[in-house]
Amino acid sequence: MFVTILMPCKNAKASFFRAAIDSVLTQSISSWNLIIIDDHSTATETLVVQDELSELADERIVVCKNLSNLITGALNTGMRQSKTPYVCALHSDDLLDRNAIETLDRTILRYPDTDYFHSSRIHIDEDGQPLSGVLRARESFTVSDFKQVGPVKPLHCWKVQSALAIGGMDESLGLHGADDYDFSWCMAEAGYSFKAISECLYYVRDHREHYRLTTHVPLDTQIRELEKIWKKHGLTMQEIEEQLQRRKEGYLRQALYLNEQDRERKEKERYDIRQGWREEY
Predict the structure, then answer these.
(1) Do 23 and 96 form a contact (C-beta atoms < 8 A)?
(2) pLDDT exceeds 90 at position 279
(3) Distance between CA atoms of residues 241 and 180, nearest Å
(4) pLDDT tier for residue 274 given thresholds of 50, 70 and 90
(5) Is there a single domain that holds both residue 10 and residue 124?
(6) 169-200 pLDDT, tens per residue?
(7) Given a cut of 90, is residue 252 above it in pLDDT?
(8) Given a cut of 90, is residue 277 above it in pLDDT?
(9) Of 60, 88, 178, 237, which one's alpha carbon is 20 to 30 angstroms from that of 228?
C-alpha cells in the first residue's frame, strides 16, 4: 500500500461528504487508507456522517481531530498519522475518480523517486454534472511560474517524508491558497521533483449552496492571504499589485462577499448565493 487519502472536514454538507466518502469506498482497488480530519465541526449533519463511518467498522478508515486549525493544520495532522509513504488530499465536497488510487500506485511504482504527483481534473456542479472538459495536468514548469499561476492542480499526491522535511504545510496560512498553491510552491522551491499524471483522477465540485473556500471566504480575506503568500515567496509590491489585478478580473470574481459586513448585509437580505459568478473553465 502506497497511498493514504487525507480528507479535511469542517461542517461538511452531508450529501457532498457522503459522496466524497463513497468515491473512496468504490475505488477499483481495495488497498487504501482514509484519514478524515475533523476541523472542529459543530454541524449536526457532519457529525452524523462521521458516526455512520464508525458503524462501517472498516479498519482502513480513521476519523481524528485536527490538532491545530484550518485546512493546513488538518492536512499536517493527517500526514503525521499516515503509515504510508505517500498521501493525497480529497476535499469533503469533491470526488476521486474510481481508478485514482490504482493509477497512483502504478505511477509511484514506475517513478519511485518522485516527490509530488498531480493529475488532470474536471469540474462538476452541485449535482455532479460536468462543468468542464478534462483539464490536463501541466507537464512542466519552473519555480518562477508560481508567480503567475499555481501550475499544480488536484489530484495532489506527495511523499510524506519530503513534505515533513520542509515542515509540512504553513499553518500561518489556510483560508485561501495555502494547501495547494503555497504548499506546492514550497515543495518546488525545496528542489523536490514533480510528475504530471495525464489521467483525470479528481472531480472538483463548484457549488454555491454550502461553504466553499474559493467562494464563501470574503474577497478581502482572499486578497490578504494571497498577499501573505506572495510576500513569503519574495514578490515585489509591483509584482503583487499586477498579480492581484489579473486575478480580480478572473477567478476572484467568484467570491460571494466583499467583506464580513457585506456578508452580514447579504444574509439579512436573503441574498441568493446560487447566483454568484461562475468561472468559465
Answers:
(1) yes
(2) no
(3) 21
(4) confident
(5) yes
(6) 999 998 999 999 999 999 999 999 999 999 99
(7) yes
(8) no
(9) 88
CB 37 within 8 A of CB 74: yes
Q: Residue 281: inside a domain, yes or no?
A: no
Examine the domain organization and report whether 163 and 249 are in the same domain. no
Residues in the chain: 281
Tens digit of pLDDT for each residue in 255-264? 999 999 999 9
State the Cα torsion 24-25-27-32 to the nearest 10°.
70
Q: Is residue 280 part of a domain?
A: no
Q: Which three cell numbers stand for residue 155?
A: 489530484
The pLDDT confidence band at residue 44, using thresholds 50, 70 and 90, is very high
Q: Count structural domains, the chain.
A: 2
**Shared domain check, 33 and 161:** yes
How much is the average pLDDT of 242-249?
95
Distances (CA, A) of 49 to 45, 55, 104, 256: 7, 10, 27, 27
Residue type, 254: Q
Side-chain half-sphere exposure of 19, counting CA atoms within 13 A: 18
**Cross-strand partners of 194:** 116
**Bond into 34 cis (ω within 30):** no
* 116 strand-pairing partners: 158, 194
b (16+ CB within 10 A) / e for 16-34: bbbbbbebbeebeeeebbb
In this structure, what C-alpha cell is assigned to residue 183?
504548499
H or E segment to which residue 246 belongs? helix 237-248
Domain boundary among 162, 178, 205: 205
pLDDT > 90? residue 81: yes
Spatial distance between the Cα atoms of 17 and 78, rounded to a whole number of angstroms: 17
